[in-house]
Amino acid sequence: MFKVWFLASLLCIQSLAGNAKDYPVSLFGIYSDGVTLNTRSIQFAIDYIHQQGGGRLVFDVGRFLTGTIHLKSNTTLHLLEGAVLLGALNPLDYDRKTYTALILAHDQKNIAITGKGVIDGQGRQVVRNVIALVHKGLIKDRFRNDRPEVEIRPKLIYFRSCDSIRIFGVTMRNAAAWVQTYEQCKNLRIDSITVDSRAFWNNDGMDIVDCDGVAISNCYIDSADDGICLKSHDPKMVCQNILIRNCTIRSSANAIKFGTASLGGFRNVRMSNNKIFDTYRSAIALEAVDG
């Protein structure tokens, strides 16, 4: 049954790459100098491609500075080798929907981030600026243990209630919080990515929250917190049908963790052929502190 589900999901997600039309970022006047803030022009490009029925926004060699962008159905961000999607340093350049992130998507279908490029959140500098805004009273935060809460520090990716997602090949580094979170999503495939994230506290490599149908394979993760973290935030939901295989994980906490948020539960999780080294806590942890 697990194999049938996995093959069906794989075929569904691979259809994303079918006949997608490519749109170079230069078409939209997006600058690669690492200085010009491209948020509005990148968002215009995503919206335009979405309105045309879908395709790939292709980033060539360069450093593309941006605040929050919202990925839309049937669109792919494709980062060629040498392309860096660079997070803005000003925390006010990020939108928030439950969490704040560089790339947001909510209720979208057939979305992808692919290529051999890099997504760099410049997390340490961003957190420094978040702290400055908290001290000025411009951002409200509990500021426990002299650090801002994870909700106001930008992740690299936060996708919620999305279907048919493909994350392939890219490198993600220097997030200010959890690197990538997928919440209540279906048919998610994460393959052959590298996560290098030790910029600040709570740098989980990836968080899979109440999702159904997830395949994580061939990934290398080096994180300052949990490597792959399965969570359940909703007592009415279950995090289920998860496959984790052929991954290499180093973690300053736990390599693969269930929880600590475990309000609904976990079902049908399979792990095989994963290499775990230099963890500060556990290779595999089951924790029920929250729920």
Describe this structure in words.
- The protein contains 3 helices and 27 strands.
- By secondary structure, the protein is mainly beta.
- It has one domain (2-286): Single-stranded right-handed beta-helix, Pectin lyase-like (Pectate Lyase C-like).
- It has a 9-stranded parallel β-sheet. A 9-stranded parallel β-sheet has the order 2-4-7-11-14-17-20-23-26, covered by helices on one side. Strands 5, 8, 9, 12, 15, 18, 21, 24 and 27 form a 9-stranded mixed β-sheet that branches.
- A hairpin with a 1-residue loop joins β8 (96-97) and β9 (99-106).
- The longest helix is centred in the first third of the chain and has 13 residues, at 2-14.
- The chain is globular and about 50 Å long.
- The two termini are 29 Å apart.
Give the key terms:
291 residues, mainly beta, Pectate Lyase C-like, nine-stranded parallel β-sheet, 3 helices
Topology:
Blueprint (H helix, E strand, L loop, with lengths): L1 H13 L7 E3 L8 E5 L1 H13 L3 E5 L2 E5 L2 E2 L4 E5 L3 E5 L8 E2 L1 E8 L2 E7 L2 E3 L2 H13 L19 E6 L2 E6 L2 E3 L6 E4 L2 E6 L2 E4 L8 E4 L2 E6 L2 E4 L4 E5 L6 E7 L2 E4 L4 E7 L3 E7 L2 E3 L6 E3 L5
Parallel strand pairs: 1-3, 2-4, 3-6, 4-7, 5-9, 6-10, 7-11, 9-12, 10-13, 11-14, 12-15, 13-16, 14-17, 15-18, 16-19, 17-20, 18-21, 19-22, 20-23, 21-24, 22-25, 23-26, 24-27
Antiparallel strand pairs: 8-9
Quick description:
By secondary structure, the protein is mainly β. It has helices spanning 2-14, 39-51, 123-135, and strands at 22-24, 33-37, 55-59, 62-66, 69-70, 75-79, 83-87, 96-97, 99-106, 109-115, 118-120, 155-160, 163-168, 171-173, 180-183, 186-191, 194-197, 206-209, 212-217, 220-223, 228-232, 239-245, 248-251, 256-262, 266-272, 275-277, 284-286. The chain contains three helices and 27 strands.
